[in-house]
Amino acid sequence: MKCAVDIESRDVEEMYVNIDPIQAGGRLTVDAMKAAIAYGDGYSVCDNCRNPPRLDYIKNPPIAQFHADLAAWLNMDTARVVPGARRGFQAVASTYVEKGDPVIVTALAHYTEFMAIEGAGGIPLEIPKDGKNHITPDAAAEKIEAVIREFSKTPPLLFVDHVDYQFGNVHDVAAITKVAHQYDIPVLVNGAYTVGIMPVDGKALGADFVVGSGHKSMAAPAPSGVLATTNEHAERVFRTTQAKGDVTGRTFGIKEVEMMGCTLMGVTVVGMMASFPRVRERVQHWDTEVAHSQAVVDALLSIEGTKVLSDYPRQHTLTRIDTRESFDKVAQQHKKRGFFLASDMKKRGITGVIPGSTRVWKFNTFGLTEKQIRHVGESFIEIARENGLNIV
Amino acid sequence: MSKRAVDAVFQALFLLSDVRFLLRETTPGHDLDEAQKARAATTLDKVKRQVAILEEELIR
Description:
The structure holds two protein chains of two kinds.
Chain A: E1 2-4, E2 7-8, H1 12-15, E3 17-18, H2 30-38, H3 63-73, E4 78-82, H4 85-96, E5 102-106, H5 111-119, E6 123-127, H6 137-151, E7 158-161, H7 173-182, E8 187-190, H8 202-205, E9 209-213, H9 214-217, E10 225-229, H10 231-237, H11 266-282, H12 286-301, E11 307-308, E12 318-322, H13 327-333, H14 340-347, E13 350-351, E14 360-364, H15 370-386
Parallel strand pairs in A: 3-13, 5-6, 7-8, 8-9
Antiparallel strand pairs in A: 1-2, 4-10, 9-10, 11-12, 12-14
Chain B: H1 3-25, H2 34-58
Helix pairs in contact in B: 1-2
């Protein structure tokens, strides 16, 4: 069925259990879907924009209140909604990083952190991960020392991922920020896989900036995200424009430079707002989500030869699995080769395993019902049995 | 100007969104339990009422 000329309707979420690693936390709530219907038009949230003319001051719909609520919820002082986590990284990097500055990231950092640093003229330098795929405070200290020695200056910023996208491991961010602060390095915590799906307390993490992704973890339309900070940094990162037209003499009031004047608009911000009550509530049930994740991982581990590459027991719903000694052995003999697994899953109404993947791959169980979790686990085992693998 | 018709359109779309999410919740089998069936029936009744309002406002 087409929803417009040459555009097929998307019915993935209605037809399948979707375990795609990046899509789980961004599925809309029903409230966000209704808000999207009502606020699809471009400037829809601007009907009641008054003085001062800035989106985050709009009271109807209650965008101003939403900003205050977001900051309080993250236990930070101030927040802005931005077009995706990457734009949050960009705003901070653009403010703090000068050309040639060394900036610390980690060996598990998302590529957009690199882009943000590169865009600001900085040089990204990685804290190595340890043998268990963790970023440790000791490794952070060693890297900072090494960078200071090499560049004869202190990095202006350190990026760390609360939960990394590669393994879905939870890192000791509080200890890492403590180390960074000993060198007066502000820390940006990338919460793309945490803000909106599990409890996040920015102050407890010692974060100078918390960045979240609306479309990855806050049940919001893309592109959306949040950048929250402390009073210490707010004035700098959310500085207002000083520009003046040399011919016209025009000035632009309190428009914020890094926000390009106004924050997120239209269906993206309203979608985030509509989902927020449910998002705020759902993070309280994180233990259940982790238990669901564990159940599917255990089902996979019951297939002889399968290994989990993420932390075990699981502490997150995103998991990296190694099936080179199980499903990939089947793939070598199967007429569909590596495509058999995604194909067999799809026959059972499950999608999200990248077609062709039977070696090392990721999945995410966030937001599934108990029944769906059972179905996913049982389906993996059934497919293994049908293809002659041992269940242990 | 029919505010009543406009409200009915939104209301019907919102109710159908509830049905859409029932499909999501029960995918892939869409085997509804008794409570879900009752929810679906109530919602669809409400949709019909909104459609009736639209017929009344726009066609008759």
